[in-house]
Write a structure and sequence with these properties.
Blueprint (H helix, E strand, L loop, with lengths): L4 E2 L9 E3 L6 E5 L4 H12 L2 E7 L5 H12 L3 E2 L8 E6 L11 E2 L4 H11 L6 E5 L10 H8 L4 E4 H4 L1 E7 L7 E3 L5 H11 L6 E4 L7 H9 L2 E5 L5 E5 L8 E3 L4 H13 L4 E8 L6 H8 L3 E10 L2 E9 L7 E2 L11 H8 L5 E4 L12 H11 L3 E5 L2 E5 L8 E3 L4 H13 L4 E4 L11 H8 L2
Parallel strand pairs: 3-16, 4-15, 7-8, 11-12, 19-20, 23-24
Antiparallel strand pairs: 1-2, 2-24, 4-6, 5-6, 8-10, 9-10, 12-14, 13-14, 16-18, 17-18, 20-22, 21-22
Length: 446
């Protein structure tokens, strides 16, 4: 078989050739969940004792979190694919003031959670920065709730844009209403609450992914979840965190590419193993079920407090879909690949309430609209979403990930379904969350 996905081998970022046609068959184990990987490193760092992490995602974003923690005196073993990672915790107040800027790379999760982690380190000073893309991403949504606790965070555009300077202070517990349903904002406040004076309650407008709550409780935090749909989370300081053994399940956001491909590619037969099925993350399964997808959940189990299963998918005609802000916290990262799916549904699909995608690694709504239009898609971009009229073939085109990992992988699936070959510039962006994506795709091709 000719290699369907070719790229430069000399370290340059030459366009990758994407061959149309063929099918997909076999089993795949997607990388560890990125959200859980970040949190296992962060919580392990401020616990007492050793935290052992199995299945941690060895991709660029978690590596940025690990590098920042190492700069503050935390010992973390090398992070490599297939290797168990050990974090030697320094306790709640053991982080040292770094001698250099903390480089968050391209990781918004790293920067936002670090703000919460560092805001209460009384008397210590920190500077957070990142790459050009991260410097454009909004941070005030975290800075403002932390400021209500007494945090001192400064930066460009009134503290909205990196570089950001954090002057650690003694924070005071309070009731915080987060401006958006964001697990990153919520988690930053919960981290700050661990060392504040008095209890803190976070109230979300809608429930976001709850990995922080689950894991903090497992580490020993005095945390309670209540209110409608678990939207009220309270932390009382004073509890000691203890190192844990964390098993990171496969990331359902990475599984989503295979779920859509397995539903659309003729003759496909795919099983995605060991996928996290946390109900705050499974919006993609709800949407695909409503579209008529044929997905079976096998071997359901619970690992380290997180529900897990294997997903078996087979092709079937998909129906158009409509969804809005009510489900967005549960599938915001899956919107790019659902845009691809919409192109192959007979009728109009509509995504609304998705303005959050305009402040991700890229403006994902604009980028997906540009790239799919280049392939001949019939669509309209809206302020908060996109409408796609499916049923017309996509053609091969010169494509560009525009440095966004989820765009790169979504366009790879679109290229299989196109009528002719494509090329993809900056395909290496996939490594941000799925370092072996291109290898897995080539292995599954048949």
């Amino acid at each position: 078989m000719n290699s369907p996905f070719l790229s430069a081998t000399d370290g340059t970022s030459s366009p990758r050739v994407l061959t149309a046609g063929g099918s997909l068959s076999g089993s795949v184990r997607v990388p560890g969940d990125k959200s859980i990987s970040h949190r296992s490193l962060l919580f392990g760092a401020i616990a007492e004792g050793t935290t052992t992490i199995e299945g941690l995602l060895p991709a660029e974003d978690p590596l940025s979190t690990a590098a920042c923690l190492r700069s503050m005196g935390v010992t973390i073993s090398p992070i490599e694919a297939g290797e168990i990672v050990q974090v030697e915790g320094v306790g709640l107040d053991g982080l040292q003031e770094p001698t250099a800027i903390l480089d968050c790379g391209n990781s918004g999760t790293t920067m936002r959670l670090m703000l919460g982690l560092l805001a209460g380190r009384d008397g210590r000073h920190f500077i957070l920065d990142g790459d050009a893309s991260l410097r454009r991403r909004p941070m005030r949504r975290v800075g403002q709730p932390l400021a209500s606790m007494g945090a001192d965070v400064r930066g460009r555009d009134g503290g909205n844009l990196a570089p950001l300077a954090v002057q650690g202070t003694q924070l005071k517990g309070t009731v915080v209403g987060t401006p958006v349903a964001s697990a990153q904002v919520k988690s930053a406040v919960l981290l700050a609450a661990l060392t504040a004076e008095g209890s803190t309650t976070v109230i979300e407008p809608a429930q976001s992914r709850d990995h922080s709550e689950r894991m903090l409780k497992a580490f020993g935090a005095d945390l309670q979840v209540g209110g409608e749909m678990g939207r009220h989370i309270s932390v009382r300081p004073g509890a000691t965190l203890h190192g844990q053994t964390v098993v990171v399940p496969g990331d359902i956001s990475s599984a989503a590419f295979w779920l859509v491909a397995g539903s659309l590619v003729e003759g496909a037969d795919l099983t995605i193993e060991n996928v996290g099925l946390n109900p705050t993350r499974t919006g993609i399964l709800d949407v695909l079920e409503a579209m008529g997808a044929c997905i079976d959940i096998l071997n359901r189990r619970e690992v380290a407090g997180e529900p897990v299963g294997d997903l078996q998918v087979s092709p079937t005609p998909l129906k158009p879909f409509h969804f809005g802000e009510e489900i967005m916290p549960r599938l915001v990262d899956e919107v790019p690949i659902l845009c691809v799916a919409a192109c192959f549904c007979d009728g109009e699909s509509r995504i609304s309430g998705a303005s959050e995608l305009r402040v991700k690694e890229t403006d994902r709504l604009a980028v997906m609209a540009r790239q799919l239009k280049a392939m001949g898609a019939d669509l309209d971009e809206h302020d908060d979403g996109i409408s796609i009229r499916g049923g017309r073939p996509l053609k091969g085109a010169v494509l560009d990930s525009e440095t966004d990992h989820r765009v790169a992988m979504s366009l790879a699936i679109a290229s299989i379904l196109a009528t002719s070959d494509s090329s993809l510039d900056r395909s290496e962006a996939a490594a941000v969350s799925y370092p072996n994506f291109w290898d897995d795709l080539e292995r599954l091709r048949c």
